[in-house]
Amino acid sequence: MSDAIEDIREEALSALEQRTDSDSLSDWHSQYLGRRGAVGRLFGTIGGLPPEERAAFGQRVNALQKDLGAAFEEREALIQSQLLARDLEEGEIDISLPAYPRRRGGLHPSTRTHREFQTIWADMGFQVYQSRDVEEDKFNFTLLNLPPHHPARDMQDTFYTTDPRVLLRTHTSPGQIRAMRELGAGGTKPIRVILPGMCYRQEQVTARSEIQFTQVEGLAIGRNIRMSDLKGTIAEFAKRMYNPKAKVRYRASYFPFTEPSMEVDVECFLCDGEGCRVCKYTGWLEIAGSGMVHPDVLRNGGYDPSVWSGFAFGMGPERITMLKHGIQDIRYFWGNDLRFLQQF
Ligand code: PHE
């Protein structure tokens, strides 16, 4: 007498050998192992058997299901590897074909300038101190000698948050207080840092001014720091950044947090001081605001101004980047236009 289970096993296994591609293979799967397949139908007959035969029959159908499943997987792996071998043989995959060119990103021109700055200042012994973009009014103004209603606050139109004590920093100078408090160990240690970062001002956006721009602040605190140290340090930076023969000049200026305060000009590096359109025929370019740290500011940073002194400066890298690459409009910097960015 033929055995239904063994018949199906034999039929299924020999049918499987005829299947040579994945479509016919999946037909096979539904024919035998699918929900309405042959094995499923065998399970369906269990109920019609005499009770004493059910368990043994069920076990055999289970075994069949397992065996057919294993045979299916084996066949599937074989077909896959044959297909791959055939593709390789027939050259459907041409491994000698050049790959699609990969688009390479580039560094933002402003990032490049910042890196150049950081390398130079690091070589001169300045550590990078990362301060925060969102500041307290206290740090951005009050502790820098700009109490509420001080007229010099108007020099920097400010973006406030819904909390009037919290704002977007208008310059990197609040980092001076944070650096002194954090690195000065209660006014006992000298520090030498630069503080690079984004600043924000609520200004009319034009080709020459943006609501966001970067600055690089510098701060040195020590026991014997004098104006000559500031002048020498900036002159050295200018030589390394612009031109080994770069001349620097200082003009008296005013910032509430430095005293005395000076504006720093460097000889125009495009015309070597001859006078050109970029320097408006003056031969000089303004590169920094600077000065000796005001005694109040030293005190706010935790230092005793009768013992400690220091200098600070703030530079605007975008201007330098614009001059260097002949960029006419500062709005390109944060406009994210790839046609601009891909040029660098
Ligand atoms: N914070 C000043 C500005 O944004 C620049 C500055 C920094 C001046 C440090 C003096 C000392 O205009």
Segments where pLDDT lies below 50 for 5+ residues? none
Structural class: alpha+beta
- As laid out across the biggest beta sheet, the strand order is 1-4-5-9-8-7-6
Name the helicity range.
Answer: 25-40%
Q: Assembly type of the shown chains?
A: single chain
Taken in chain order, the helices and strands follow as HHHHHEEHEHEEHEEEHEHH
Largest sheet: 7 strands, mixed
Count of DSSP-assigned helices: 11
Q: Tell me the β content.
A: 15-25%
Strand segment tally: 9
Shape: elongated
* Overall radius of gyration: 38 Å
- Measure the end-to-end span: 85 Å
Instruction: List ligands, each type once.
Output: phenylalanine
Describe the structure concisely:
This protein is α+β, with helices and mostly antiparallel strands and 344 residues long. 40% of the residues lie in helices and 19% in strands. Helix 5 (109-123) crosses helix 10.
Describe the structure.
The chain has 344 residues and is an alpha+beta fold. The protein has helices at 4-18, 22-32, 38-45, 51-90, 109-123, 137-140, 174-183, 227-241, 295-300, 317-325, 338-341; strands spanning 127-128, 134-136, 166-168, 191-200, 212-222, 248-255, 258-267, 284-293, 309-315. Helix 1 (4-18) packs parallel to helix 4, helix 2 (22-32) runs antiparallel to helix 4 and helix 5 packs across helix 10 (317-325). The radius of gyration is 38 Å and the shape is elongated. It starts with a helix and ends with a helix. Residues 171, 173, 217, 255, 258, 289-291, 312-314 line the site of phenylalanine.
